[in-house]
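Incident log, structure service

09:12 report received: a user says their structure output differs between two submissions of the same chain.
09:20 pulled the input from the user's history:
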Amino acid sequence: MKKFRFTYLLSGCLAFVSLLGACGQSDIEPYSSKDMIWFTQQDENYEPVNEIVRSFSLYPGAETLDVAFEVNLIGSVVDYDRTYLAVVVDSLTTALPAEYELHPQILHAGQVKDQMLITLKKSERLKNEEVKLTLHIIANESFDPGYSDGLQVSVTFNDITTRPDWWTDEVARSYFGDYSKEKFEAFYNYSGRNEIDGLLPSDLRKLLLGFKEYIRENNITEADGSEMIIPVY
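09:34 re-ran on a clean worker, output below:
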């Protein structure tokens, strides 16, 4: 009889421990009777990207810019489109409704991953100030929110003239010369590029020699009329 009672007590303790373990796991992994959606954007180093920064000054002539965040399904893949819902967080948003457009938020049929598209719109005040748009996924008829660290994203944008990060002192000395808004816009108009990522030094030199000739042929100068210098030979 004592052995029977001990076995019964031990079974009850193990069941209680298992229940505690299950409760602990539920704090880590969200449970839902519906499929879930969350943001999973990553950079080239596989680090999460929850904020995108854009400046219209790096896209001369552009009145709108499109940005996208990756969304990811937790659940079943189906053969029809489903909408999810990411809403503007007013307390974390300074952009005006006229300065952005939210596109239909759809996880397309057969997809595990998709893109949430946002169009940024240039306004006069962006020349002097930076604004922010923040979005947060909430539940709708198709999806519940996924993991908590992937429910909110933001876009910070402006039209303030600044030297691009890649235009370093070394790049200036070896290739582009001193930065100016006029030189950057001329390079963009010539090459269609606003960055030089992925270019080998030999490719960059070839590109800059062509740009130098483009400046000469079109008589492009700095804002004060002085020569636009490209120190590549």
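09:41 both user submissions now match this output. Likely a transient worker issue. Closing.
09:42 reviewer note: The radius of gyration is 27 Å. Residues 2-28 form the longest helix (27 residues).
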